[in-house]
Structure formats: structure tokens, C-alpha cells
Specification:
Elements: H1 2-12, H2 14-26, H3 32-38, E1 52-54, E2 59-61, H4 64-114, H5 117-124, H6 127-146, H7 155-158, H8 160-163, H9 165-173, H10 175-185, H11 189-198, H12 209-213, H13 215-237
Antiparallel strand pairs: 1-2
Helix pairs in contact: 1-10, 3-4, 4-6, 4-11, 4-13, 5-10
């Protein structure tokens, strides 16, 4: 039963994920590097440095000037991509916090009035604590990204994640039980009617509650994915984050 519920919540959450994917494509995070490297002035303003072949040593001698020019051409592309990743992290964090607030503001209080306290706690776990932590994370990310420059980094901010990973661990470990408890609660006609009514709320956008409950389970892997890409681009720029 819980496996079917989890599969259903994953499918329902696709609409929430599609918003992030659409923004990612609009930021040009796919194929950005190749597009940037292909750009350039077709008419060179100066004669490129000559690359000489040393027959005696059996190797190509590349002048330092040519190496420097190659590095300078790579930097704008990598820096542009890096800024896009920073924007993507901020944008998805804004959406994530907004969706967590949908859970606490639209669902939690209403269900808490008609369900036993223990059952409400089982369904929503510590999502309010997660919301508080991620709101603080967003408050630190926003000014950093909005005032982005080549010298900016995000590593020190994400070190904050270490302090509340245990909160996510608890939520993830009890997630299957949460879905089972929600399925059981739906057997009550009053609860079923309430949940159906909440789907018409503008912030809910017709999605099922389970589509929102699964978001914290998906968030940590998304952080890892985006930070790995950011780390790769930092290596291209010989920076550390």
C-alpha cells in the first residue's frame, strides 16, 4: 500500500519538478558551455601566435601567449555557466520554501483539527522544522546570488546544511509511514472531502498533498547534483568553493 502511495506521490510531484526543469532550460544550463565556446569574432584583429614543431625534441612548442589566450577565452564561458547554476539554486530554493509553506499553511492546521495528534504528527513529521531551516538558508542565499560576481561563492552557506541533515534523515526515514498514515486518514469521509477541497486552493494548483510531502525527500539529491556541477565549473576556473 505504501509503495503504491509513494509511486503515486512521485508521479504527482512531476508537475512541481517540471517548473524547476523549465526554469533550468530557460537559464541555458543545457549545452551552455559548448554554445559559449563556439562564439567568437570570425575576423581576428591580430595574427595568432605561431605554434612551432621542434623536430629535435619531437614535440609541439606552444608559446605562452597562445596558452594565455586560450585560458582567457574559457573563463567567460565558465563564469557565465557558474552564475546560471547559482541562479538555479536560488530559484529552486524559493520554489521549495514556497511549497513547504503550502503544506504548513494550507494542510497542516486544518488536518490537525480533525485528526488525532499522533496521526497528524506521523503524516507531517518535522516538516515545520525543515521549513524553518530552509527559510534561513534562503535568506542567506538570496543576497549572495542577487549580488553575484566572479569572486562570489556559495560553499560557506551550504556548510549550514551539515547542521540540519539529521532533520532530513528523520523525515526521510519515516516517509513511507507518513504515506501509509495519510492513506488510512483518507478512509474518513470528512478527511477525504477536506483534502479534495484543498486541491482547489490557488497555491495547491490541483496537486495532491503527497506531491508536496515528497519534496524534502527529493531536495537533498538536488542540492548534490547542482553543487557537483558548480564544483566542476569552479575547477575550470581554478577556484575553490
Amino acid at each position: 500500500e505504501s509503495s503504491r502511495s509513494r509511486s503515486s506521490s512521485t508521479s504527482s510531484a512531476t508537475s512541481v519538478e517540471d517548473e524547476e526543469t523549465s526554469h533550468q532550460q530557460s537559464c541555458g544550463l543545457e549545452g551552455t558551455a559548448s554554445q559559449e565556446f563556439s562564439k567568437g569574432d570570425p575576423t581576428p584583429t591580430s595574427t595568432p601566435p605561431i605554434i612551432q614543431l621542434s623536430a629535435s625534441q619531437g614535440q609541439i612548442d606552444i608559446p605562452q601567449e597562445a596558452l594565455n589566450q586560450s585560458e582567457e577565452k574559457a573563463k567567460p564561458s565558465s563564469e557565465f555557466f557558474r552564475q546560471n547554476i547559482a541562479n538555479e539554486i536560488l530559484h529552486t530554493e524559493v520554489m521549495y520554501v514556497q511549497n513547504l509553506r503550502v503544506v504548513t499553511d494550507v494542510y497542516l492546521g486544518s488536518l490537525d483539527e480533525i485528526l488525532p495528534k499522533e496521526q497528524t504528527k506521523m503524516i507531517f513529521s518535522n516538516i515545520e522544522v525543515i521549513l524553518n531551516y530552509n527559510s534561513m538558508l534562503l535568506d542567506k542565499l538570496r543576497p549572495r546570488v542577487e549580488d553575484w560576481s566572479s569572486d562570489q561563492s556559495l560553499g560557506d552557506i551550504f556548510i549550514l546544511l551539515i547542521s540540519f541533515l539529521k532533520v532530513y534523515t528523520q523525515y526521510i526515514n519515516t516517509f513511507d509511514s507518513a504515506l501509509s498514515s495519510l492513506t488510512e486518514a483518507r478512509k474518513d469521509p470528512h478527511v477525504c472531502a477536506l483534502l479534495k477541497q484543498k486541491e482547489s486552493h490557488p497555491s495547491v494548483k490541483g496537486l495532491d498533498l503527497s506531491a508536496f510531502l515528497i519534496l524534502p525527500v527529493q531536495r537533498i539529491p538536488r542540492y548534490e547534483m547542482m553543487l557537483r556541477v558548480l564544483s566542476f565549473r569552479l575547477n575550470c576556473l581554478d577556484k575553490s568553493d
